[in-house]
Amino acid sequence: MLPLLLGLTLAQATPATPPPEEVVQPQEVRALPGRLDSVPVFNSNSPELVLKAGILLSTFPGDGKKVPAAHLNFPLRGRFDVFAHHVAKAEPPENLRSLYQGIILYNPGAKPVKVNILQGASYLSQPDAPFIQLDSFIPNDSGTVFAGPGSRVMSDVLRGRRQNIFPAQIVIPPGESQMLFNLPIPVQGLTPPLNGRSTYMRLLSNGTVYAASLAMFAQTNADGSERAPNLAEWQNLLNNGELSTPRDKTPTPIQGTGKPAIYGRVAGVARGSQWRSLLTDNPKSKYLTIPQPGQAFSYALSTLHGGTFGTGQIQSAPMLVRYPDTAYFAHGNYGIQYSLRLPLSNNSQTSQTVSVSLQTPLKEDQLTKSGLRFFTTPARQVFFRGTVRVRYRDEQGKSTTKFVHLVQKRGQPGEPLVLLNMKPGGSSLVEVDFLYPPDASPPQVLTVSTQK
Predict the structure, then answer these.
(1) What is the C-alpha separation between 236 and 213, in angstroms, rounded?
(2) Is 334:278 a contact under the CB 8 Å cutoff?
(3) Residue ranges per domain, the chain?
(4) Angle, alpha carbons 406-412-413 (nearest 5°)
(5) Looking at residues 245-270, what average pLDDT do you find?
(6) Smallest Cα–Cα separation from 31: which of 448, 445, 432, 389?
């Protein structure tokens, strides 16, 4: 869950705890080549904490709706993604009804529309994927290592999975609606009565649809048991409901205030679901020359306003439509896949040992120390938790694929994802892929270093 103010103020202990000791890694930080694609992402993340039934995000036209301002009038067609992350809390504590989140799709056309669910996953914090303490570097080829629902969802989608709660395809008749999903966020039996759900889906539609993310409490049967809201109840909420309240903090303008930034949370359609990048010496080169022994360089990842490490590059996905009180950009790029190809080349006369690492330096917009700043003992706040896939050829030329679950705290350098012994004049293609996980705080870097 992206902190609204990136950078936390820790309460002073008694006696005062000395600040962590910093170390500077002198090196070049480069902008990331490539750019986001143009696939729209339906991004439902505000309000994060849902206390009242209502509309979370609607791309429907406002015509005929009781609250036209709750609808953004943005049709979707072809490839588009759906990201949703919301939290339910018993308020008051004795109100233990389950909150349901539903996403409804409507076909405004005269022909049936087929929507293929290419990949998708949805998990609860409890019991599916609790936030547990994990080591910073754990092999995860089986996909059974995760901490938090965002970590688990992105690991599944990275592997191309479609969770069995989702069909391969839904068909929407002309002028009708279908539920893309209708899932609970239960709080009963939990201490405290608090739970969250993260969802990511990659969809392909052969016609125009409108989408809405809605929140409603469970309906009650005659015997007092709960049931899920039905399609008619969801449609009534869509037509007659208003935006769910209370709202999240309103974001500050992106630039020029001189005050701490409130980035806000995202509710709208962002542009871009994948960033493909070929990392070479320059646009005309076919190779990425490894650093000199004892040196390193880094590429900035998931940069945002106020955190570009001196590159000036903003990778945050722009919003195509949004509500006025929500984030100006999809800061953090939750769910966006980074696909990075590094055709490494050792042009020296001796063998070299080269590492490729994901790192979480201290966030800076301009580098104050001509390099990246880390803590010798990382801070307490976890800034990245998720699975990374690495593909490369080993010394015998054998293709290798491995998945690693990383947990990195603020200021943590991280362990090498891969360590290569490169012969003089040798080359090796390394590919790094991950979906930027919810519950992480940007930015990070991908670092290539050569041992002395």
Answers:
(1) 13
(2) no
(3) 22-36+273-450, 47-240
(4) 85
(5) 86
(6) 445
